[in-house]
Structures are given as C-alpha cells and as structure tokens.
Amino acid sequence: MDFLGIKKRIKTTTPDPTRRSIDWRLPLYAALVALTIGVAIELSGSFDLIELFYYFVVLPLAVLVLLVACIWRRSMAVLATILVYGCTSAMMYRVGYDVRVHSRWLLGSSSFEAEVLKQTSPARGELKHIEWDSWGFAFAENNAYLVFDQSNSLDTAAKSRASGNFSGLPCEVQQVYRLESQWYAVVFYTDESWASCEQPSPKNTLHPPDTV
Q1: Terminal Cα-to-Cα distance of the chain (whole angstroms)
Q2: pLDDT along the chain (212 residues), means of 10
C-alpha cells in the first residue's frame, strides 16, 4: 500500500561473487606484531638464541597455522596476513643487528659515552673503546666494541658497510656502524677480539661487501 502518496523505494543489490574485498586491518596488525617481536628480540640479552628459535621454529609454525586457516576459510585477508607477516619478519631478520645497535645506543648513549671517555688513552695510537656486545657460542664467539673516533676516520667504512683494516683498530674488522658523529660500533670477525690482535693496522683498507 502507498500511504499518503509516498512510495517507498527499496533498492536491492545482488552481490558479485567474483568480487572479494580485503580487510587490511588483520595484515596491518600482523606487521605491527612482527615489528614489535623483532625489536624485542634484538633488545634482549640472549638475542642470538632467541632469534634462532623464533625465526626458525616459531615463525614457520605460525605461518603454517595461518596457511591452514587460509585454505579452510578461503580468506584473502588471511592470505594477505601471511604475506605481510612473513615479509616483515624476513626484513627484521635481515636488519636485526642494525636494529639492536641503534636501539641500544638510543636508549643508553649517555652512560655508554661516559664509560668510554673515562678510559685511559690506549697505546699504539688505537682509539678509545669498550667491549659493547658479544654473542655466539663458546666455540664461535662474536664481539662488538663501542669506539670513540674524534676525527671520524671510520665514517667512510660505516657508510660503505665494508670490512677491512682501519686506522686506530688493531686488526681487520667485519663491519663498522656509525651511531653519531665520533661514535661507532665495530664488529670483529668470529673468535677475534681487541686483545687478541697484536698490531694496529697501518692504514685504511676497504673490502666492499659481497653483492648478490
């Protein structure tokens, strides 16, 4: 019936079964979770062991569970979640130590600076330093040092991400990270330390990183 001459028009639409919209909230949450877990791992004390357990045990299991859910529900949102979570986790694994170095410096640079500057000037023209980080196992230990370089002679090595021999360091090192002007983190090769190297390097020698 048409009351008072007013016609009610009801618009009906038929959903298109071939069109599927994705709710991007779930993939976004997955990316945030992957980033949070990655940063938390790198800030932990035993980050190397936790990193191995998470990325090679927990992560594959989580992806497997999500894949089963994707197949069961035929959900594009779950598939997008798997891709985003996996890619974000892979990125965090690749840049993990970069995140650790810069996060630790951001959170405690003042105390680290004070500890280095109170050291007596090393012999043989070496740079002031402290042992800043270590990881690995008893038969394969890695060491990193926090170095004060007043002349920023390590800046080129840090920008190129190259290994090599550099003035003020006792032997060839794997990588140099620039934290801020005059402050650097230097990673030695496995089973090498500042004390185990006998002679300082006479000049800078860069070894560019391997390219794929």
Answers
A1: 75
A2: 48 47 84 96 91 95 90 86 94 95 95 94 87 86 95 93 90 95 96 78 59 48
The predicted structure's pLDDT at residue 18 = 41
pLDDT at 138: 67
Reference 93, options 44, 56, 64; nearest CA is 56
Q: Are 139 and 187 in contact (CB under 8 A)?
A: no
In this prediction, residue 184 carries a pLDDT of 97
Has this prediction a pTM greater than 0.85?
A: no
The CA-based diameter of the chain, rounded to the nearest angstrom, is 102
The domain limits of the chain are 25-94, 108-207
